[in-house]
Amino acid sequence: MSMAGRMRMGVKDFVERMPAPIRLRELIRTIRTARTQAEEREMIQKECAAIRSSFREEDNTYRCRNVAKLLYMHMLGYPAHFGQLECLKLIASQKFTDKRIGYLGAMLLLDERQDVHLLMTNCIKNDLNHSTQYVQGLALCTLGCMGSSEMCRDLAGEVEKLLKTSNSYLRKKAALCAVHVIRKVPELMEMFLPATKNLLNEKNHGVLHTSVVLLTEMCERSPDMLAHFRKLVPQLVRILKNLIMSGYSPEHDVSGISDPFLQVRILRLLRILGRNDDDSSEAMNDILAQVATNTETSKNVGNAILYETVLTIMDIKSESGLRVLAINILGRFLLNNDKNIRYVALTSLLKTVQTDHNAVQRHRSTIVDCLKDLDVSIKRRAMELSFALVNGNNIRGMMKELLYFLDSCEPEFKADCASGIFLAAEKYAPSKRWHIDTIMRVLTTAGSYVRDDAVPNLIQLITNSVEMHAYTVQRLYKAILGDYSQQPLVQVAAWCIGEYGDLLVSGQCEEEEPIQVTEDEVLDILESVLISNMSTSVTRGYALTAIMKLSTRFSCTVNRIKKVVSIYGSSIDVELQQRAVEYNALFKKYDHMRSALLERMPVMEKVTTNGPTDIVQTNGETEPAPLETKPPPSGPQPASQANDLLDLLGGNDITPIIPTVPTSKPASAGGELLDLLGDLNLTGAPPSAPASVPQLSQPPFLLDGLSSQPLFNDIASGIPSITAYSKNGLKIEFTFERSNTNPSVTVITIQASNSTELDMTDFVFQAAVPKTFQLQLLSPSSSIVPAFNTGTITQVIKVLNPQKQQLRMRIKLTYNHKGSAMQDLAEVNNFPPQSWQ
């Protein structure tokens, strides 16, 4: 015997003497006996070492068993990447058991980020043409799971060929594989079009299911395919009708319903096909009504079908009666014991409340009952939906329920609930007294959780309600007796007592029984607020100012007031000390001016310059409501009026506004910068009359003298753009350029895009900057933001920054979307340094 033969015999004898590796089942049993993680890790490491040795020795006998064990360890979270090439060897094997483990390993251990997977392409192509359907199925599953774009391009023809085969087992797998191919390489979609049309004629439910999935993917990715497949709506309706009317079939029955999975898929496809199309919607109205009325609701399977039916009805152009039926189904869901079903119902009703308000109102009592649910997610959805249902007809009843909820809810709900009550009360209050009582109730219940603007808003409301001054100050005085825990309430009370303390002492309240209060008792309360440990610095400032105001309203306690004010002239609180020192100076040097300086605040008027009327959204009661307007003055205005936009970023100084003459818009909607807080008087010179622009201390025109020279600096092209706003499908991007002649000028171009399915109309972008900047807002390119990101609105902002300070900006966005007026505020602080340095 030759030397080579003897060596082969020796190796064979050695391999035969080696113990066979343990089976997968034994490995699982051994690992489960581990008492600690360290013990388990030791077992895994030992077995991995044995598997590595086997791989190095090219042991074909037990390769399949070793890879199976490796996959189990991979599922436990241990590294198994060293088995990737062994998977490829198993795939190349002729044995089905080897191929099965090899393909499973490839799907778990490989992905398109690793170049190793490209070595599989030829093996998959051979197996797609294999004579055994199960081997073809393995190849289709693997390609559909982890095929890269390169593999999909190479093998798309084989997949399309299998879509046309008569074997239903292969057709359903090929359809799912085609979905993956389309996702990776959308341009190959047309290749599968002829084969896809015939799939809906198949009787096999598996093929039907996968073909509907394939159709859905194609319609979602291509508007052309969507238009092409709309003619299949009658065929899909017929398939769905057969499913509903067919008798018991043990092969497809789930809890008494025939193939609910296929029904749900067809309903989703119908929703896509019927969206924004009258003919398709009309063709599916009857079958949707049939599904909605005939589906059994006692089991969760039926509820799933009904939920998909409701979504489809709401998304297509369905009849009004059908929409009411859908909302009634959601109303029944609210009575279900399953929390998930109740949550889904509340979420769906919240989406439809603006379009079908009256139908949702019928379920108001059930929605309010959900506020008492133990599940916090359901509570939050019920709270949001309750606020959406508030209107002028039910404001009293709904506020009663929401105030009760505010009193008993968890702390994380109080802030949102208080804000919602404030907004609803401001919009639908039946009377000023009711409005004041409601806000005071909120401040008493959850004063520490209200927004920062609650105090000034309530003060403004009280100031404007002249006939309610005596009633309000008496109620607030009672509310804070001995309880200073709710700081916003104490601040409002201190302000009102300072303004209307004389009405409190005189006992002139007609709305309720007056109380007898002396001047000393009133001062006792305010002094208690000053020394209370619960009082914040802001609250103490309110109290000290109130005491000072009472020096002109009270006659017997002026000396006591002087003493209190002088004491706080040495306070460690700088703000309080400054106030006290200034008030002391009023008493000593300017006593003759004190009464005039501390006289009662005048009524604060809300004035808008956005046209004579506005549409007030009243949750089902939309009507035009006149707004207060002032006629524009005929002559030039002082700079303090033309620039009446307060610094919204934290200061009290005025930011100059540079008016712009519009080219095509009427003067009433021109270059005025509207009040970003909604309640400031911004009456300014009309943009059509440049002669009335006020003479400012700073240059009146931002880019004066730049028109004859190149406008932008080439070196500014490297300034990165930013996303200033992204919410509810609306995205605002800022791009930057620097002026070529004036480095202090930054030109910002905004681009507004809309990713939702409907256009955003009447779009208005507004901006404000701190007092150290000047801002010029040019006219936008349009007022409509097209849907599906098919276009953008552009608008130019020019900012003069002579001191090279960090740029900050407050923006306000208003637009109409889906029939609702939308408004939002945002602050932009992430400007790149290159834009302002």
UniProtKB/TrEMBL annotation:
Membrane topology note: Peripheral membrane protein
Localization in the cell: Cytoplasm, Perinuclear region; Cytoplasmic vesicle, Clathrin-coated vesicle membrane; Golgi apparatus; Membrane, Coated pit
Predominant location category: cytoplasm
Positions of the UniProt region annotated as Disordered: 609-646
GO cellular component annotations of the record: AP-1 adaptor complex; clathrin-coated pit; cytosol; perinuclear region of cytoplasm; recycling endosome
Database matches in SMART domains: Alpha_adaptinC2
Gene3D superfamilies: 2.60.40.1230, Leucine-rich Repeat Variant
SUPFAM superfamilies: ARM repeat, Clathrin adaptor appendage domain
UniProt keyword Cell membrane, yes or no: no
Swiss-Prot/TrEMBL GO biological process terms: endosome to melanosome transport; Golgi to lysosome transport; intracellular protein transport; positive regulation of natural killer cell degranulation
GO molecular function terms listed in the Swiss-Prot or TrEMBL record: GTP-dependent protein binding; kinesin binding; small GTPase binding
Biased composition (Low complexity): 637-646
Entries under InterPro entries matching the protein: Adaptor_Complx_Large_Subunit (IPR050840), AP1_complex_gsu (IPR017107), ARM-like (IPR011989), ARM-type_fold (IPR016024), Clathrin/coatomer_adapt-like_N (IPR002553), Clathrin_a/b/g-adaptin_app_Ig (IPR008152), Clathrin_app_Ig-like_sf (IPR013041), GAE_dom (IPR008153)
Any Pfam family: Alpha_adaptinC2
Keyword tags: Coated pit, Cytoplasm, Cytoplasmic vesicle, Golgi apparatus, Membrane, Protein transport, Transport
Limits of the GAE domain: 717-832
Residue ranges, compositional bias (Polar residues): 609-621
Function: Subunit of clathrin-associated adaptor protein complex 1 that plays a role in protein sorting in the late-Golgi/trans-Golgi network (TGN) and/or endosomes. The AP complexes mediate both the recruitment of clathrin to membranes and the recognition of sorting signals within the cytosolic tails of transmembrane cargo molecules.
Family in the record: Belongs to the adaptor complexes large subunit family.
Protein's name in the database: AP-1 complex subunit gamma
Record lineage: Eukaryota, Metazoa, Chordata, Craniata, Vertebrata
